[in-house]
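Have a think about this chain, tokens included, and walk me through the fold.
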Amino acid sequence: MGDALVIVESPAKAKTIAGYLGDGFVVESSIGHVRDLPMRASDVPAAYKGEPWAKTGVDVDNDFKPLYVVNADKKQQMANLKRLLKKADVLYLATDEDREGEAIAWHLLEVLNPKVPVHRMVFHEITKGAITEALDNTRELDRRLVDAQETRRILDRLYGYELSPVLWRMIGAGLSGGPGAERGHPDDRGARA
């Protein structure tokens, strides 16, 4: 029988929780987010490099389908988690219980592709009692939280990626203030932007 693999977001949490769980559990960290939309052209997989949407990583003509890639600084940790998962007989995803944490858990599922039972473990404090209770009361992944985070990320990329340079040019041209700006009132040009 293998150990249970528990994945949390931060290395500090991993160390503390490992002490509470003891033998039979391997606790490791994802070190935060493990995948994201490509940041640079070099991050785009070869199969997608010619696509007109590859720059943003979002295929708007295909239901806004995102293209996720493993972050370069997480590739080694993902290899480590895959190695640990091969020895495990169960996987507990113990990332934070918010949009970002739920998304990290989902991305871990997508990348690790576990062949063992998977449980979502959530807790609100790092105490022995809270960890034990979370282990006894696991739940399914909340796809609504994952979808909410994914929607926010796609909007950030599509609008922030394209709009930010325009806004910075406008701000640099002096369109961020004007008469009344010192009183907190935007002038007409800034409001239109």
The longest helix spans residues 143-172. The chain has two domains: 3-34+71-141, 142-193. DSSP finds six helices and eight strands in the chain. The helical segments are 11-21, 75-86, 99-112, 128-136, 143-172, 188-192.
